[in-house]
C-alpha cells in the first residue's frame, strides 16, 4: 500500500509554491509536508560548537588555575627580581593559548578518527563536506579567546612576596 510520495525540487520552494501545493493536495484529500533540513542542522551545529567552546574554555580555566597555583612560588620569585605584570600576563596567556591549541588539534583529530572508524565505505562520501567555519572557530577562536582571557585575568601581583606558602 502506497503511503506517500517523495518529491524533490531542484531548489527550495517559495512560500507561494508551498501554499499552492497544499491547496491542490487538500482538494485531493492529501497533505503536503516540507522539510528544510539546513536550518535545523545549522542551528544544531552552531549551538554544539558554541557549547563545546564554552566547555573547553571552562576546563582550560581550571587547568591554568591549577598550573598558576603550582607555580605561585616561581611567580613570586619573578616579581621579586623585577618581572612586571606584563611578563606574568604573557606567561599565563601563552600557557592558556598553547594548551587550548593543543586541545583543539587533538580534539579535532580524535573526532575525525572516531567518525572514520565508525563509518562504512559507503558512508565515507558524507565526510566530504568539512564544516570549515566550525573547525576554524574551534582551532583558531578557542585558543585566541583563551590567550586573551589569560592575559586579562592574570595581571595581579602575588599576595605575599615575603612569606612562603605553608603546605
Automatic annotation (TrEMBL):
Keywords: Membrane, Transmembrane, Transmembrane helix
Keyword Transmembrane helix belongs to the record: yes
TM segment ranges: 48-69, 90-115, 135-154
Superkingdom as given in the UniProt entry: Bacteria
Name listed for the protein in its UniProt record: FtsX-like permease family protein
Organism for this UniProt entry: Pseudosporangium ferrugineum
Amino acid at each position: 500500500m502506497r503511503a506517500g510520495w517523495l518529491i524533490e525540487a531542484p531548489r527550495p520552494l517559495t512560500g507561494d509554491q508551498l501554499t499552492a501545493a497544499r491547496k491542490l493536495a487538500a482538494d485531493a484529500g492529501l497533505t503536503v509536508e516540507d522539510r528544510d533540513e539546513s536550518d535545523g542542522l545549522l542551528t544544531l551545529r552552531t549551538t554544539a560548537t558554541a557549547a563545546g567552546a564554552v566547555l573547553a574554555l571552562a576546563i582550560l580555566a581550571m587547568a591554568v588555575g591549577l598550573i598558576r597555583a603550582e607555580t605561585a612560588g616561581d611567580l613570586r620569585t619573578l616579581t621579586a627580581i623585577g618581572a612586571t605584570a606584563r611578563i606574568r600576563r604573557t606567561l599565563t596567556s601563552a600557557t592558556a593559548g598553547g594548551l587550548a591549541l593543543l586541545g583543539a588539534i587533538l580534539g579535532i583529530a580524535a573526532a575525525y578518527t572516531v567518525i572514520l572508524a565508525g563509518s562504512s565505505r559507503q558512508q565515507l562520501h558524507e565526510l566530504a563536506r568539512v564544516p570549515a567555519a566550525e573547525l576554524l572557530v574551534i582551532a583558531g577562536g578557542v585558543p585566541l579567546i583563551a590567550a586573551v582571557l589569560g592575559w586579562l585575568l592574570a595581571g595581579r601581583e602575588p599576595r605575599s612576596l615575603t612569606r612562603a606558602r605553608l603546605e
